[in-house]
Input
Amino acid sequence: MTISDRSTLVGFVIHTRKFRDTSLIVEFFDRDQGRCGLLFRGARSSKGKQANVAADLTLFKKIRVQQLSRGELPLAKILECVSGPRVIRGQSSIIGMYVNELIYRLLGPFEAHSEVFDAYESLIESLALAPFDLGRLRRFELLLLAELGYGIDFSYDSTTGQEIQDDSVYQYIHGQGFSSGLGGSGMKFPGHELNVLSKGEMSTAGQKIVKQVVRQAIHHLLDGRGLKSREMLETRG
Output
């Protein structure tokens, strides 16, 4: 799929890599176009009109760009910064990089995900606040999985088809759901906490359940390949 000539995109840089001596290849996340690769020639140059381009192609800043050519990797230029840089530090910055890596690794190019984009923008704004509510991250992860067709149902036992029982214990099986047919050494989750999650409530215990379930789902979606940002989060505790 190609994207139209001279079209305008508004969104966020989620990943960059160097190209040749002074250029950058940017993975950009737009509300209508989805994830797309863009080439910014001379973006790393310290001279002339390009001197400040790299500073604007930073994470967590909303910008407007224009595509100047066609193809899978069109040439682009920055038109304006829609919002100034958000001050995101420490663990919050690593969470932001983790979310960027999820988008980069899981979403296909040129696939519009407007609901994910809106949730991403809201999440990035909240990362600048202290303390950050981890429940927001867990909700974003669940939304992203649902968009990919792997929504998690906390209401029903996938083995029996019956509603989750408060006094029962369940395991999560990727692609199937929560099951009371316990076996193996997988993590066990209490039914009463699953029922709380099914109501859209996110307790501290619920956050831990979502974290484990999402990790299992992403492990399968990435064929066991790890996430660099997750390793950084675990290193920081």
Strands lie at 8-19, 23-30, 34-40, 62-67, 76-81, 169-173, 177-179, 189-190. The domain at 145-236 is CATH 1.20.1440.120 (de novo design (two linked rop proteins)). Residues 1-6 have pLDDT under 50 and may be disordered. The first helix runs from residue 53 to 56.
